[in-house]
Amino acid sequence: LDLSNCSLQSVPPGLAEATAAIILDLTENPLTAVPSASFLGFTQLQSLAVPLALECPGGSDAWQNVTVDRSSRLCQGQRNPCNSSVQLAWPCPENSVCAPDGPGLVQCLCDSPFHGYKCLREGPFPMLLFGGILGAATVSLSLLLWGTQRRKAKSP
């Protein structure tokens, strides 16, 4: 994806849709900062060129090779932060596994059959119970409103 020399003041919001990009060029743009969250989901990104004034997203530890030339910085070979020897600041909770989510970014995915907040619930989601309670509450509320509001309806 070549976005070089596009007069970008900031990262375009549509960039989030290009998570399948392998090579991205942002050089020759007057960018002042590139938030790391701009590259959320860019797990396939292997080469990123940014203006010299900017650092590689996720820092130099997120890349295997950082090369600086006279006008740009080239970040190559995105590292998997889950495999690094450096301990994560926020380790994943029990019953979950670390997965990369972009340069220097991680996400915690629940192991099967766990789900829910902090992967504490085990087994499948109780769809029948959830649907039954939701359906019963909807029918009850509808009957209550129909019974209390029908006298206010005008007859022709």
TrEMBL record:
One record GO biological process: positive regulation of osteoblast differentiation
Domain EGF-like: 108-119
Transmembrane portions of the chain: 125-146
Organism domain of life: Eukaryota
Keyword Nucleotide-binding included in the entry's annotation: no
Keywords: Membrane, Transmembrane, Transmembrane helix
PANTHER family the UniProt entry points to: ALL-TRANS RETINOIC ACID-INDUCED DIFFERENTIATION FACTOR (PTHR15926)
Protein name: ARAID factor
Organism: Loxia curvirostra (Red crossbill)
